[in-house]
Design goal:
Length: 152
């Protein structure tokens, strides 16, 4: 150091002091190989575990199917009730397709075309020679309809 108290060459190594540590060089080389073979002693437990896993998978699939069915029935019911009331999404709406496959068969005030058949009555009671008025009256009576005429 100079008279000013500052080192002349700051950061330089000024001297070395040898210290005995007892450390020696050590070289090591290790090569290893390992194999493990495992054989279950009780295969019955292994089969039971596989069966339990499959049963659990089947249960989860059935639960999912039940929830899907509940969802579809609720969708069908809600869409049908709204359609009966005349409420639906606009065809350009992205939600229109939610109820697009629901069909209401019997909306209020609407009846589907249907037909009734009136059975023909065979005239085996001796009405072949009757007048048309008598045949008509006799046939209507056989059908069970009320027999009325304009002349009373």
């Amino acid at each position: 150091m100079d008279e000013d108290g500052a080192p002349d060459n700051p950061g330089d190594i000024l001297y070395r002091v040898p210290i005995r540590t007892g450390q020696k060089d050590n070289y090591n080389l290790g090569v290893g190989f390992s194999i493990t073979w495992s054989e279950p002693l009780d295969k019955k437990l292994q089969e039971q575990c596989k069966e339990a896993a499959q049963a659990n998978i089947d249960l989860m699939k059935q639960t999912t199917a039940n929830k899907r069915l509940d969802f579809e029935i609720a969708r069908l019911k809600n869409c049908g009730e709204l359609m009966k009331q005349g409420i639906q999404f606009h065809p350009r709406s992205p939600y229109y397709k939610v109820c697009a496959d629901v069909v209401v068969n019997n909306p209020p005030g609407h009846t589907h075309p249907h037909y009734h058949t009136i059975p023909s009555v065979s005239s085996s009671s001796g009405t072949q020679n009757a007048t048309p008025e008598q045949r008509g009256s006799s046939d209507a009576a056989l059908l069970g309809a009320p027999l009325t005429t304009g002349r009373e």
